[in-house]
Write a structure and sequence with these properties.
There is one protein chain. It is built from 7 helices and 5 strands, in the order ααααβααββββα. With 169 residues, the protein is α+β, with helices and mostly antiparallel strands. It has 2 domains: 83 residues, NADH-quinone oxidoreductase subunit E (Arc Repressor Mutant, subunit A), CATH 1.10.10; 78 residues, Glutaredoxin. Strands 2-3-1-4-5 form a 5-stranded mixed sheet, with helices on one face. β4 and β5 form a beta hairpin. Bound molecules: FE2/S2 (inorganic) cluster. The site of FE2/S2 (inorganic) cluster has 12 residues, from α5.
């Protein structure tokens, strides 16, 4: 279980022992009714993704089968099963943002970053993901970059934000 690339924007440090961290989160949610989803969120918040090894640990703690945990993990787009790049760029692709230019913004971002949606660039610098509504519909199009939300984006604004976040073209 590794997480060398991802730096949690709230922790700003890479966890030293991901396996121990997953076990601690599993213990905190052991036998808690409905505890699987908050446990998955906690693991991803800490590691940037939910590693395969976490499925067994969380299944035991929540008294579910591995298939059930895997089913929940893969049902929600929010959860990643692979480590993201050092920067995570999430572009809203829901209706209000699409109506205000999110498709064009996504095309620009893919050109500027050199990777497609759902992909991490070969140098591990950045992961580009769609998200489906950030609650900023009145200020579309919006994005979340390294955990911070931005509204009324244009390709030029996005370039400036990426440059100040240190995301190299
Ligand atoms: S549709 Fe993009 S923020 Fe709601």
């Amino acid at each position: 279980m590794t997480s060398e690339a991802y730096m949690n924007p709230t922790m700003n440090v890479a966890p030293q022992d991901p396996a121990a961290l997953v076990r601690r989160i599993a213990d905190e949610h052991r036998h808690v009714p409905g505890g699987l989803l908050p446990a998955l969120h906690a693991v991803q918040d800490a590691l940037g993704h939910v590693p395969a090894e976490a499925v067994e640990v969380l299944a035991q703690a929540t008294n579910l089968s591995r298939a059930e945990v895997h089913g929940v993990l893969t049902y929600y787009h929010h959860f990643r099963t692979a480590a993201p790049g050092r920067h995570v760029v999430q572009l809203c692709q829901a209706e209000a943002c699409i109506a205000c230019g999110a498709n064009e913004l996504a095309a620009h971002a893919q050109r500027r970053l050199g990777c497609e949606m759902h992909q991490t660039r070969a140098d591990g610098a950045v992961t580009l993901e769609p998200v489906y509504c950030l609650g900023l519909c009145a200020s579309s199009p919006s994005a979340q970059i390294n955990g911070r939300v931005y509204a009324r984006l244009t390709p030029e604004k996005l370039d400036g934000i990426l440059a100040s976040a240190g995301v190299a073209p």
